[in-house]
Amino acid sequence: PYNRLQNIFRVNQFTMQFRKIFTLFIILSYPLSVDAELLIERFNPESLSQPVGYSQVVTIKGNHKYIYLGGKAGIYPDDSFPETLEEQSDLTFENIRMALAAAGASPKDVVDIEIYIVDLEDIDFETNPVYEDVRNFFPAGHKPTSMVIGISALAYPGLLVEINVRAVVEE
Fold first, then answer.
1. How far is CA 117 from the centre of its chain?
2. pLDDT grade, residue 107 (50/70/90)?
3. Residue 47 predicted with pLDDT over 90
4. Cβ–Cβ < 8 Å for 38, 64
């Protein structure tokens, strides 16, 4: 009876070791079965308009980190800001560039922007400096989806443009 009990104990010990090893194998192999690369696809379906400054659709697949930049505006570190829309827009995009870099990203990693412009209806579409900055900020082939919203005011009186940014980078 003692030898039989000893054999049962060995079998149970083997089963427990096998379970531990098998579980460890499953845990370690799981990340290998997931897409190892980040794939960002930006495109404009033929059935939609073909904008120059942004993409109609952005899809994201793979191992990635999302980066959200909320409320980037043309504000200096001392909380002051320029008076004109053109100067505020230039500074806004410089602040976006710095914030992206701090998070390990760049303009090519941006997948979506929301632009809020005060009194948009009073600005000529062709000469709007924000639109020009959007077109120039993002490299060819890396245009994010975009939404422009005209509003009556922003949190700081005198602030004329603010942009929310979403980016994604490979982990």
1. 21
2. very high
3. no
4. yes
